[in-house]
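Encode chain A's predicted structure.
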Amino acid sequence: MPCLAHTLQLTLKDAFKHPSTGNVISRARSLVNTVRKSSVATEKMISKCGKTLIKDCVTRWNSTLNMMKRLLETKIVLNQVLDELGIDTLLTSDWSKLEQLVKLFEPFAVHTDQLQTDSQSLSEVVPCLLNLEAHLQSSVISKPLDQIMLQSLRERFAYLLNPQAADFDATPAAACLMDPTVAFALFTTEMESMKAARSCVLQHAAHYSSPLVSQQQKSSVNPQCPTSASAEGTVLKRFKFLASKVGAELTPTSGNTTGNAGSAHTELSTYISKLKQGKVCCETETPLKFWQNREIVYPRLAPVAEDFLAAPASQAFVERIFSVCGQLSSGRRNRMDTSLEQRVFLKMNQKLLLSISTNN
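Encoded structure for chain A:
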């Protein structure tokens, strides 16, 4: 499976290649380079607003969006400085186009940042992609560009979103299903991955030996709690485009299950039924903690869910660790020092260790 954050950036690059977009970005980049090369213009910008323009870099994620956002943030001051120095500014149509592009690209930047952190689970992948798809479908900002990006998104991520694709992988959809905070993403009439996700979960559950849990132990635990509107609202804010699309399609089910009593199939059907009825809440728990606290209730499902949720959302953080290794070893040695692993650990957990020492 390729890195999801990298692939998401390729979708943005497809948009940058569109003539109308590429021309505006090229003119904006040229203006930024002109201002940054002028020490007088830079000093005037800093004295007037305390900010300078941002130069984008093709290898740095979201840098082009950050460049456009900074141009818009400093538009008034920038035009004043350019007028004083006799430098031409952008056309009115260019400024308007930049505003449209920022609105269109902003959700992609948010989800790229979200997927490349070390704290995000594989369960976030499908909701992020469906949220971006819903964003592009509902967008009226730039119809030709919207459709180009939507087509690129669907083609590049067909192996995650289209069960009919030859290389379809149901693992991210299964992880999404096992995360009670984002499982709602699969409950749509259009989301055909639901069956594939269920099959993937049951297939993995078959590899685990049958746990010996008595019925008395099961009945002694009550994992249900009232659904919190604030907790649900927090999740929906993160996927606002998808939430507006899914909300009307969620309908309570009767909760009937099929299969042998005590089977993984029955546990999964019960879990999904409770999700649709709003009887599963995760207000004070992480998804992993949710399943750890319900291992007695879902003895066959819990270990499978924990496996899925433990997988990272992308390879970006792992690549940063290798980059740190290269920096610490100076990249000039053919043998690693015995303390390299320990130094990398200290470097990657520096903030956590400092906070612990401060609290003590």
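Confidence is low (pLDDT under 50) at residues 212-222, 225-231, 248-261.
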